[in-house]
Amino acid sequence: ASMSFNNIAHQGDSLNAYLQRSDEAQTNYSISYTTFLGNLKITPSYSKRNYALGGAYKNANFIGTSENLGIDLKYPLWITTYNSFYLTSSYYHKKLSNSRLNIMTIDKSSDTISFSIEGVYNGISNDSFSYSANVSYGNVKDGGTTILGMSSKTDGDGFGKFAKLNVNLNNAYFFNDTFTHLFSLNYQQVVNGATLDSSETISLGDPYGVRAYNNGDGEGDNAVVASFGLRMATPLKDFYITPFYDIGYSWYENDSKLYRASETNYMDAYGLQLLYNKTGNFYVKLDLARALKKYKLDDDYSSKAYVSFGKYF
């Protein structure tokens, strides 16, 4: 669920809140405020989320928690009728904790700065294309391991400096008033050969990835995930139906570590999205997805349902 309060101070600002809850004991929430200083867009934010752990940590039933405080800056180099181009940068401090019941807790923290470009190109008839490319530099620090109340520090895998690249592409082609083809591509790649901490890896299974799989399934340092959809307007105004196909591939940059699997992960799924979007007022979205491939030891093909709701004020 998401909520937006617009133009609070009558200067184009906005307050945004988001909450996600799943039956996998995962709760993610965030709050952010956007304001402007001239053409500079400034967005401080706070969020807390659960993230999935891979390898031996996942098998031992560890749960990861990330508490994030940061700020994003965004400045337009140009905005025209057909295209726009922005420079952005951000800084985030994260407080991380991997825990197993009340027996063992691994505490960490990280500081990350990133620089990116993003833009929109509408120069082709009936087509809208958006893109972003982001390079992140960070340092994950050991906060200590606590076992039954006794704490110590260790030099485990994932601690230290890292860098990674993220690329996001989105395209919508409007055949006519009824049919629109949708395409998205997300790519993550380690830049300096580092071993990423679990908070910085990427998983294919996700409400915004290959939607039929559990969050954390198909984890890796590097991944490419694509989605194809055909959105259809219905006779009911503002109601859309979108059959979709998701596909993803992930791998580790360094697979020699004990807790990392040497094999790669490939997943794909199909599904249907139902969307009612009252522009400028609210939206309700239902995603139904079913896997085309069994994941590792799964007895059956995984299926998922996601419900989203948003309200604008």
Automatic annotation (TrEMBL):
GO cellular component: type V protein secretion system complex
Protein name per Swiss-Prot or TrEMBL: ShlB/FhaC/HecB family hemolysin secretion/activation protein
Domain Haemolysin activator HlyB C-terminal intervals: 2-256
GO molecular function, one term: protein transmembrane transporter activity
Pfam families: ShlB
Organism: Campylobacter jejuni
Database matches in InterPro entries: Hemolysn_activator_HlyB_C, TPS_OM_transporter
GO biological process: protein secretion by the type V secretion system
Residues forming coiled coils: none
